[in-house]
């Protein structure tokens, strides 16, 4: 006899404003506990010293995580000039100092080098694996960590404020895999003054905004609330950046059986991203029926080929 899964089948997204000194894993565990959910994950880690949006996927929403992870994310952060640290933030040991301080004009002149398609070397203290071990474990053990540069798309990097000569505040919008600590480190190097992050906050992640987040205090009392599921967003919230194709009951049944169906976009003019009914070949799309997700698939030759399918009911139950 198969073992019964622990917890309840809860499907949807729960957004949390992560506080300082709490890990993303702790946020997921607390959300799963608060909702008594069987399955949970998240769409992007934040460092313990960072705050802001952590999007927790529950149940069927975990199938949509890759599409949120790949989406743009926005951060506001503060850099302190005059020192490089071992971790590229204020938690690490200062390993080099500089008396130079940049002007606002010098900072703004350097920013174009950090926008568009750039190459970025992740911090030594990161979760990237090197020969099967986490880079931060190697660094903490005193081993030299040489990580390879990685491509990163930076949509925007803007100077917001200079409260004093030692600090500057920025807003960054970037794609998957970006390290704000590396931006601060490399910007400090480019300006010749060195720098590290002292504050970091994620203000949105793909379709998810801070305004929809629970506070940590709300998350801690979620289990005792009258309706713990009331703050859940639907599974489909994680598919915001994909073109939607509405299908009838017969097509929905075919997709759930793993069979392809003809593609029909979600109504002419319904979605400003829909330029044509069929879209581009090999695009990832999703199919819906009666407002619920049916499948995520690939669009080829005008047909949707399912890759991940959803059971007949995936919307959060607020009863």
Uncertain segments: 267-280, 314-319
Give the CATH H-level superfamily of the largest domain: Pseudouridine synthase
The major beta sheet can be summarized as: 9 strands, mixed
> How far is the N terminus from the C terminus?
31 Å
Number of strands: 18
Number of helices: 7
Can you give the mean pLDDT?
Answer: 89
Return the CATH topology of the largest domain: Pseudouridine synthase
CATH class of the largest domain: Alpha Beta
Radius of gyration: 22 Å
- Principal-axis shape equals globular
Proportion of residues in β-strands? 25-35%
Helix proportion: 10-25%
Total count of domains? 3
In short:
The chain is α+β, with helices and mostly antiparallel strands and 319 residues long.
């Amino acid at each position: 006899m198969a073992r019964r899964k622990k917890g309840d089948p809860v499907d949807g997204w729960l957004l949390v404003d992560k506080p300082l000194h709490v890990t993303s894993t702790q946020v997921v565990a607390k959300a799963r506990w608060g909702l008594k959910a069987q399955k949970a994950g998240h769409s992007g880690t934040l460092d313990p010293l960072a705050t802001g949006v952590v999007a927790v996927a529950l149940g069927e929403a975990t199938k949509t995580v890759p599409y949120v992870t790949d989406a743009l994310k926005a951060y506001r952060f503060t850099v302190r000039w005059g020192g490089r640290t071992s971790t590229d933030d204020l938690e690490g040991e200062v390993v080099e100092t500089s008396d130079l301080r940049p002007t606002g004009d010098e900072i703004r002149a350097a920013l174009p080098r950090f926008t568009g398609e750039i190459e970025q070397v992740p911090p030594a203290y990161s979760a990237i694996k090197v020969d099967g071990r986490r880079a931060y474990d190697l660094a903490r053990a005193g081993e030299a960590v040489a990580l390879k540069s990685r491509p990163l798309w930076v949509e925007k990097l803007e100077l917001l404020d200079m409260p004093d000569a030692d600090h500057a505040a920025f807003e960054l919008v970037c794609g998957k895999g970006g390290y704000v600590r590396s931006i601060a480190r490399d910007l400090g190097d480019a300006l010749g003054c060195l720098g590290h992050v002292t504050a970091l906050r994620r203000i949105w992640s793909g379709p998810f905004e801070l305004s929809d987040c629970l506070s940590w205090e709300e998350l801690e009392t979620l289990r005792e609330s009258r309706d713990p599921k009331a703050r859940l967003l639907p599974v489909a919230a994680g598919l915001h950046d994909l073109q939607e194709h509405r299908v009838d009951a017969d097509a929905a049944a075919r997709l759930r059986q793993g069979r392809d169906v003809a593609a029909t976009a979600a109504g002419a003019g319904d979605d400003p991203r829909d330029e044509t009914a069929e879209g581009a070949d090999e695009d990832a799309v999703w199919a819906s029926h009666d407002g619920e997700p049916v499948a995520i698939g690939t669009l080829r030759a005008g047909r949707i080929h399912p890759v991940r399918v959803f059971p007949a009911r995936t919307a959060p139950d607020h009863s």
